[in-house]
């Protein structure tokens, strides 16, 4: 039975494992698109896979996993011999400690704020609800300050997780791409080192394929 990724087209969280699969050159998988509009995400069948009614989830021959970053970690390890190496070497405690450090940074200093902008400018209009411009402005200000630190970091290393492209970059890329699409490009482009990082990662063949 091939891998089955249960997600939603256009979901940024679903985009993470799709990008990971593209990086690894894995095409032998099934994609199940969950219909949120009909409430499919709250069906018993879906809740058995993802108890919070969200996406994505992964079914690997009966092994069920949810949360996009966990799925990416699992797939990067499962297909370690395919495509670029995206995880630290087994047994390298210092490299793994740094990996977890940078993974925490992505969640706590980027995603939690960026997602607020995405929800307001993308999700709310899709639901026919008004955009809360105060929420957008507040999170834009926080992110603007955070990107000062990111620019400093990326002046010392080429990628978000260190000197080489890694799973940490995969975690960022769908949401950063969404910020560009939502008219928030200046958050990235006004910082030269962040812009240079984005130019590098967004030019990757896997990202171009996964973004179509």
TrEMBL record:
SUPFAM superfamilies hit by this protein: GST C-terminal domain-like (SSF47616), Thioredoxin-like (SSF52833)
GO biological process: glutathione metabolic process
Keywords assigned by UniProt, alphabetized: Transferase
EC number of the protein: 2.5.1.18
Catalytic activity: RX + glutathione = an S-substituted glutathione + a halide anion + H(+)
Pfam family, one: GST_N
Top-tier EC class: transferase
Cross-referenced CDD domains: GST_N_Phi (cd03053)
Domain GST N-terminal, chain residue ranges per copy: 1-83
Keyword set includes NAD: no
PANTHER family per record: GLUTATHIONE S-TRANSFERASE RHO (PTHR43900)
GO MF term set: glutathione binding; glutathione transferase activity
All copies of domain GST C-terminal, residue ranges: 92-212
Protein name (record): glutathione transferase
Taxonomic lineage: Eukaryota, Fungi, Dikarya, Ascomycota, Pezizomycotina
UniProt similarity note: Belongs to the GST superfamily.
Organism the protein comes from: Corynespora cassiicola Philippines
GO cellular component, one term: cytoplasm
């Amino acid at each position: 039975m091939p891998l089955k990724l249960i997600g939603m087209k256009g979901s940024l969280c679903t985009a993470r494992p799709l990008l990971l699969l593209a990086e690894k050159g894995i095409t032998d998988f099934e994609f199940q698109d969950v219909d949120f509009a009909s409430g499919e995400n709250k069906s018993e069948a879906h809740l058995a896979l993802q108890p919070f009614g969200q996406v994505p989830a992964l079914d690997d021959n009966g092994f069920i996993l949810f949360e996009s970053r966990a799925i990416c970690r699992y797939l990067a390890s499962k297909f370690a011999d395919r495509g670029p190496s995206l995880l630290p070497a087994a047994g390298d405690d210092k490299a793994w400690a740094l990996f977890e450090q940078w993974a925490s940074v992505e969640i706590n200093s980027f995603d939690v704020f960026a997602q607020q902008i995405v929800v307001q400018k993308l999700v709310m209009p899709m639901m026919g609800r008004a955009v809360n411009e105060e929420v957008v402005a507040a999170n834009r200000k926080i992110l603007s300050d955070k990107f000062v630190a990111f620019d400093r970091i990326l002046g010392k290393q080429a990628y978000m997780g260190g000197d080489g492209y890694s799973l940490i970059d995969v975690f960022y890329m769908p949401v950063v791409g969404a910020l560009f699409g939502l008219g928030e490009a200046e958050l990235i482009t006004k910082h030269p080192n962040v812009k240079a990082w984005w130019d590098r990662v967004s030019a990757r063949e896997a990202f171009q394929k996964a973004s179509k």
